Amino acid sequence: MKENQNHENASFKDYENPKDKNIYQKAELFGQYIANWQSRGHWNYRQVCLSGSTAEVILEGEPDKIYVATVYNDYLGLSQHPAVKAAAIAGIEKYGVGVTASPAIGGQMDFHVEIEQKIAGFFKREAAMLFTTGYTANTATMQALFKKEDLAIADAGVHASMIEGVKYTTNVKTFLHNNMEHLERILKGNQGKYRSMVVVIDGVYSQPADLAPLADIVYLCKKYGAFLAMDDAHGVGVIGETGRGVIELHDAYQDVDIITGTFSKTFGHLGGYVVADPELIEYLKYQAAQHIFSVAPTPASRCVLKSIDLIDEEPWRKVKLWENINYLKKGLHDLRLNTEHSASAIVPVIIGRPGLNAEVCKLLLEAGVYANQIGYPAVNLKSARIRMSITAAHTIDHMDRILEAWEWVKVKMNIKNFE
Ligand code: PMP
Predict the structure, then answer these.
(1) pLDDT tens, position by position, 185-206
(2) Among 85-94, 138-147, 204-213, 352-361, which stretch is predicted with the lowest mean pLDDT?
(3) Ligand 1 pocket residue status of 339, Cβ below 6 Å
(4) Amino acid 181: pLDDT
(5) Of these four, 76, 148, 233, 319, which has the most CB atoms within 10 Å of its CB?
(6) How far apart are the CA of 135 and the centre of ligand 1, in A?
(7) Which among 306, 216, 230 is positioned nearest to 268, based on CA atoms?
(8) Tens-digit pLDDT profile for residues 317-353
(9) 301 CB under 6 A from ligand 1?
(10) Atom 12 (ligand 1): residue with closest C-alpha?
(11) Are residues 365 and 298 in the same domain?
């Protein structure tokens, strides 16, 4: 960031490594940026929630106001399910609150093995392993498997954790989001140049909220001899007849070498998983640094055994989720708002200009809707957006309240179309 640059036109990225600033100086500079946003009432990050990740929440500072929350990825509402809560409590009662050792040296409990087997079976595969977060599942797996002799070819929209994971290859190429011609050009141009090539994709992309064309990608990977890694953090529970995610749409269970995901969204808890062939999983159990040198998930994570079952046992949750999504999207389109190519439980509204985005977010909050503003570098500057996650715990009344809030914001700002 240049000295005296206006903080209003800056983004988080400008403060990552400002020239000639030591750690305190760069923190001070970033502090000025935050203060500038706060002075306009536009800093809505890290709000303190007093009520849990529910459809209606209470936020610190407004104890008498109830907001409709669209910030939680609790797609099936399982974080609040009585049976899931009971399973977490039973896990703590039996094993204590923590296991205090990494899996290789004492931390592996029987319930960890049970979760691994269950999540592998969920994807019709034989083996899986756990991490404490989805983020580490991605970084650890990619770092352990792919090195500087290898080439990673990532969709431009993949999650930050996948990009972090493939940096070790030092050969990372990105293809335009969901652009199969571009992917093929890169695969073709690099065939035989590296020890191996891995194509890295998400199932559902967290910002555009659209789906990977998995069948086409599998075809290209086979054609050019590339491995395939897919993180479907936002697809599981939401996409596919039985909620197995994007993999189910294409019956591609056996075609993805590395399936990763998280228990922090649909499953309502936290923790990451990797599903792959048994020999890869065995290798990763002793070679993935973040697994060997880090504690195993807590006994509360025993609750995901119940969450996994509930996807099959209570299919009405996915039906309710889609009823909400479809109702909301239709209402937003009637208001002439652009939800881009959203085909998942993430519903963005494209605003376009960063300053405007923050003001919209602030006004939505005023109108009782708690949503997130997403700007650069998570999306490009012109794609600044408000992002809403819809869940089965929402009701049609909640969707109406969200739509009324949007209508009010448009009138208040005297704007016909945001872009
Ligand atoms: N992958 C994707 C696509 C995500 O959106 C996220 C969370 N935002 C993660 C991985 C990380 O998951 P976790 O929260 O379990 O670390």
Answers:
(1) 999 999 999 999 999 999 999 9
(2) 352-361
(3) no
(4) 98
(5) 76
(6) 6
(7) 306
(8) 999 999 999 999 999 999 999 999 999 999 999 998 7
(9) no
(10) 134
(11) no
Total structural domains within the chain: 2
For residue 377, whether the previous peptide bond is cis, meaning omega lies within 30 degrees of 0, is: yes
Do 76 and 264 form a contact (C-beta atoms < 8 A)?
no
Pocket of ligand 1 contains residue 285 by CB under 6 Å: no
Q: Is the CB of 205 under 6 A from ligand 1?
A: no
Express as a percent the part of the chain with pLDDT over 90: 89
Any atom of ligand 1 within 6 Å of the Cβ of 169: no
Taking CA atoms, 16 is separated from 8, 21, 223, in Å, by: 16, 10, 40
Q: How far is CA 68 from the centre of its chain?
A: 21
pLDDT of the residue at 262: 98
265 CA → ligand 1 middle, Å: 8
Distance 163 CA to ligand 1 centre (A): 12
Average pLDDT over residues 121-134: 98
What are the residues whose beta carbons fall under 8 Å from the beta carbon of 352, sequence distance 6 or more?
382, 383, 384, 418, 419
| pLDDT class of 355 with cuts at 50, 70, 90 | confident
Mutate which of 75, 239, 262, 307 for ligand 1 pocket (most atoms within 8 A of beta carbon): 262
Are 413 and 359 within 8 A, CB to CB?
Answer: yes
Q: Is the dihedral of CA 287, 288, 294, 295 positive or negative?
A: negative
CATH number at residue 115: 3.40.640.10
Q: Is the CB of 161 under 6 A from ligand 1?
A: yes
Residue 366 sits in the same domain as residue 328: yes
Q: For residues 176 and 381, which has the higher predicted lDDT (pLDDT)? A: 176
Evaluate: CB of 359 within 6 angstroms of ligand 1: no
Range of the domain at 369: 45-76+316-412
Residue 356 and residue 213 share a domain: no
Position 328 in a domain: yes
